[in-house]
Amino acid sequence: MMATSDAVRARTVLPVDVARRVMWAFVIANVAVVEGLFLSAGEGKNDVLTVAKWFGLHAALLMMFQLLLVARLPWLDRRIGMDRLTVWHRWIGFTLLWTVLTHATLVVLGYAKLDDASMAKTFAALSGVPASLLGMLAAAVIVVIAAVSTRSVRRRLRYEVWHGLHLLLYVALGLSFVHQLQETTTFTSSAFAEAYWWGLWLFAFGALLVGRLALPLWRNAYHRFRVVAVVPESLNVVSVYVTGRHLDAFPARAGQFCIWRFPGHNSWWTANPFSLSAAPGGQGLRLTAKAVGDTSAGLRNVPVGSRAFVEGPYGAFTSLHRSRPGTLLIAGGVGITPVRAMLEEQTGGDVVVLYRVRSEADAVLLNEVRHLVELRGGRLHLLVGRTGENGVPPLGPSTLHQLVPDLTERDVYVCGPPAMTTAVLAALRELRVPARQVHSERFGMA
Ligand SMILES: Cc1cc2nc3c(=O)[nH]c(=O)nc-3n(C[C@H](O)[C@H](O)[C@H](O)COP(=O)(O)OP(=O)(O)OC[C@H]3O[C@@H](n4cnc5c(N)ncnc54)[C@H](O)[C@@H]3O)c2cc1C
């Protein structure tokens, strides 16, 4: 036990820091190469077209970076987490939108200046040129994707509808890729430029194909997951037990989640994220789901023996990021699932669990949590009540400090619905818990 604590204490550079540095180094190196190519490829037909070219090159770079962020590469995902990578993807997506629009506007402006024509006339003329038309179509698709991804529109759409529209991104990618091949000025300005662009596109598409297609297909073919039991935990919560071949080789850690499909029971495109609610061992995997919509409610009826298609494991909500010997685990409602798994894995150091629920009947997996906390010699506080009762925030700074006075000395893991997680993270900031000690998982879209 002592050895684990010392190992945790001695770790000064966290895996997340390493991954961030690698990402930054990658970005800076590629931006430097692109600037070099831009300068060496020579100017455009006029000043405006030169600047347009600069924006076009950077739009291509942003697209490739987007592919890497959504490729779900295990090394990055385990260190940075899918939620944070998705937030970056979102911001880079909007940066891409403005870069593409600026590029398109400057191209029209540049040619209008060159031909001494109006912008409308130039736009109409350019839309008759195949390479430009492809670029315009790609830009239009990017505008549509950005529009449905704004918070106000996104909130009104069902997840599946939004996701389906978001997949148009691949259409935009295809169109802009061909557009680039036809607008060859910088791409083919030298042998190095050509090799570099092809290499980068191959790398980005390769990462996407490996992370999103090859790896999940290979893992499912290798493990052949099947449902072995479906156990109701309460009126609206159910656990699904899944087994498979060679499960000791399934590289999951307690705290991670998978994206689950039950193809015989649901359609192929129905895929939902659920955390592992027990530490993954060689024996099997378990998810525990609260019924909030059709799919989660329907898990109760998944036939035993049916196939499961499991993508993942994903997420950085694991002990890989521990930097202190003591741990505080905070769960809201069904957010207890990864916390329950982590308790099973927990070795070394003192552990405190805060489990917030509306009523004791809502405290899913409570007996298991109690048992594991006892086994670890830890403390469990079950915080029962509705938000707003008594006027004191249930997980506000004063309650947290009162229950766990040494919380700044601990790693704090927070998991629950988005609103609760946001409130707890704000309280932890107010209590000055160092950011590197705070780890969170939101049970909602990033
Ligand atoms: C990382 C992560 C881990 C989770 N772990 C658990 C868990 O262990 N137990 C549990 O009960 N719940 C968990 N959830 C929440 C769970 O994924 C949703 O409750 C479930 O997908 C709802 O699906 P539905 O079709 O039944 O409901 P719907 O009414 O269709 O969806 C309700 C909401 O759930 C979210 N959602 C639906 N489908 C997806 C999807 N494919 N990807 C992302 N979000 C989606 C959307 O925000 C949607 O608005 C987790 C969520 C995330 C992001």
Range of strand content = 15-25%
Radius of gyration: 25 Å
Q: Using DSSP, what is the number of strands?
A: 11
Q: What sequence of helices (H) and strands (E) makes up the elements?
A: HHHHHHHHHHHEEEEEHEEHEHEHEHE
Largest sheet: 5 strands, parallel
The side-by-side strand order for the widest beta sheet comes to: 9-8-7-10-11
Number of helices: 16
Number of domains: 3
- Amino- and carboxy-terminal Cα gap: 36 Å
Identify the overall geometry. Answer: elongated
Bound small-molecule species:
flavin-adenine dinucleotide
In short:
The chain has 446 residues and is of the alpha/beta class. It has helices spanning 2-10, 15-40, 47-70, 74-80, 82-115, 119-126, 130-149, 151-156, 159-166, 169-182, 191-223, 294-298, 336-345, 366-375, 397-403, 418-430, and strands at residues 226-232, 237-243, 257-261, 272-275, 285-290, 309-314, 326-332, 351-357, 379-384, 410-416, 438-442. The protein has three domains: 15-212; 224-314, Beta Barrel (Elongation Factor Tu (Ef-tu), domain 3); 322-442, Nucleotide-binding domain of ferredoxin-NADP reductase (FNR) module (Rossmann fold).
Q: What would the keywords be for this entry?
A:
3 domains; Elongation Factor Tu (Ef-tu), domain 3; Rossmann fold; 11 strands; 446 residues; alpha/beta; elongated; three-stranded antiparallel β-sheet; 16 helices; single chain; five-stranded parallel β-sheet
